[in-house]
């Protein structure tokens, strides 16, 4: 499960970075917003499900 979340996070960040090079205007903004939300969601999920070995 966590490996899939890391993969989704990396893909979302890569797509988010590349959208500024490939797209323009509203299309770039919408794709960037969606991939940003996906990245935030996976990052929060990874943080919440982390091991708590204290």
Describe this structure in words.
Helix 1 runs antiparallel to helix 2 (25-48). Helix content is 83%, strand content 0%. It is built from two helices and no strands. The protein is an all-alpha fold. The chain has helices at 2-22, 25-48. The model has no long low-confidence stretch (mean pLDDT 92). The radius of gyration is 13 Å and the shape is elongated. The longest helix is centred in the last third of the chain and has 24 residues, at 25-48.
Please name the defining characteristics of this protein.
single chain, mainly alpha, elongated
Q: How many helical elements? A: 2
Q: Proportion of β residues?
A: under 5%
What structural category characterises the helix and strand content? mainly alpha
Which outline best applies?
A: elongated
Low-confidence segments: none
Distance between the termini: 23 Å
- Helix-strand sequence: HH
Q: How many β-strand stretches?
A: 0
Helix share of residues? over 70%
Describe the main β-sheet briefly: none
Produce the secondary structure layout.
Elements: H1 2-22, H2 25-48
Helix pairs in contact: 1-2
Short description:
This protein has 54 residues and is an all-alpha fold.
């Amino acid at each position: 499960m966590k490996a899939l979340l890391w993969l989704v996070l990396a893909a979302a960040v890569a797509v988010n970075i590349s959208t500024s090079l490939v797209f323009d205007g509203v299309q770039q903004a919408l794709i960037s917003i969606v991939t940003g939300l996906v990245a935030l969601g996976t990052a929060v999920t990874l943080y919440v499900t982390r091991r708590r070995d204290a």
